[in-house]
Design a protein that fits this description.
The chain is mainly alpha-helical and 336 residues long. 74% of the residues lie in helices and 1% in strands. The chain has a two-stranded antiparallel ribbon. Strand 1 and strand 2 (106-107) form a beta hairpin. Helix 2 (19-30) crosses helix 4 (57-69) and helix 9 (173-198) packs across helix 10 (203-230). The two termini are 33 Å apart. One of its GO terms (molecular function) is prenyltransferase activity.
């Protein structure tokens, strides 16, 4: 099924679907049961997180990247399904490792169904992602599978580094950026590149689109770190200060260590060893006194500018870049 037709000069502005429109189209196709009924506990757990609608940013970006070069085809939806399923697989397992009680404002899978079932459910979701990839045209399958598999391994590497950093007193800024690049950015970047592959893009455009996604993903994570500490929990859908309670070495934490006075550094070290109800509030007081909130906004803008530079360098008419540009701006201004 075609979503858009090849444009002429008069209809160019009407060809490209907005993120909201493509998100609705994706959701209509994706909102079905992806698993059998029996055993019910396993497959209900597998389906559970999929029904708690997330932002669907990665799969829709795949569709948007395809549409930059050619009309959207059914292979793009199969790949977009696989991307979203893989993302949810990582969330199920990450929540177990983080012992997180909430995801998207709802009980996490392991909280609702138990850890053992949640582990199996995550595995089933991952297998189903590959079943979707197996449906695409053979001429794309090799390239898509190679990129998907290398990305999946990098995401796992990033999660491992993230867990290791929780146990380390010192983590360098460069090491943290590398971890975020693996855990968060590469899936965003690969989603765009896979869409570009399906749209017939050349290697130069694929590379620029990947770098756009990679830098946007880092900026996105900076915003996520910021919102976890300073965001409105009613909008963000998570318990505030989750990263603080888990002793995660976020962008905010690393900057606080650089900017803090000797007394504040002692306070930060003390807070790492605590797990009481005042820990979050006291950590935020140190962050604010070091102007971490303003610094995070500046750092986010730096990576956002790098992302937009790669988007600008793509050999594609400006009208076809506009939807991604607008989405990037929205992601940077979000409060959820």
């Amino acid at each position: 099924m075609s979503i858009a037709t090849s444009p002429n000069k008069n209809q160019e502005k009407n060809v490209l679907q907005s993120f909201t429109q493509l998100s609705d189209i994706f959701e209509e196709k994706f909102s079905r049961r992806h698993f059998p009924e029996d055993p019910q506990q396993l497959y209900d757990a597998s389906q559970y997180l999929l029904t708690v609608r997330g932002k669907r940013i990665r799969p829709v970006m795949c569709l948007m990247a395809n549409e930059m070069f050619e009309k959207i085809n059914e292979d793009s939806f199969a790949v977009a399904f696989a991307i979203e399923l893989f993302h949810n697989f990582t969330l199920i397992h990450d929540d177990i490792m983080d012992r997180a009680p909430l995801r998207r404002g709802m009980e996490t899978v392991h909280t609702k169904y138990g850890e053992s079932t949640a582990l199996l459910a995550g595995d089933v979701v991952l297998i189903t992602a590959y079943e979707n990839l197996n449906c695409i045209n053979n001429k794309y399958l090799h390239s898509i599978l190679n990129l998907f598999n290398s990305t999946a391994k990098k995401v796992c590497e990033g999660q491992q580094l993230d867990m290791e950093f929780e146990m380390q007193q010192q983590v360098s800024f460069d090491d943290y950026v590398k971890m975020i690049g693996l855990k968060t950015s590469v899936l965003l970047a690969a989603s765009l590149q896979m869409g570009a592959i399906l749209g017939g893009a050349g290697l130069g455009n694929q590379d620029n689109l990947y770098e756009f996604g990679k830098n946007l993903g880092i900026a996105f994570q900076i915003q996520d770190d910021y919102l976890d500490a300073f965001g409105d929990p009613q909008k963000f859908g998570k318990k505030p200060g989750g990263d603080i309670m888990a002793n995660k070495k976020t962008f905010l934490w690393l900057r606080a260590l650089e900017a803090a006075s000797s007394q504040q550094k002692n306070k930060l070290s003390e807070l790492l060893l605590r797990n009481d109800e005042n820990k979050i509030e006291e950590m935020l007081q140190v962050y604010k006194s070091c102007n971490i909130d303003d610094w995070a906004k500046e750092l986010k803008q730096k990576y956002f500018a790098l992302a937009m530079r790669h988007l600008e360098e793509m050999a594609v008419v400006s009208a076809r870049k506009k939807p991604l540009s607008q989405l990037a701006e929205y992601l940077m201004d979000r409060d959820v």
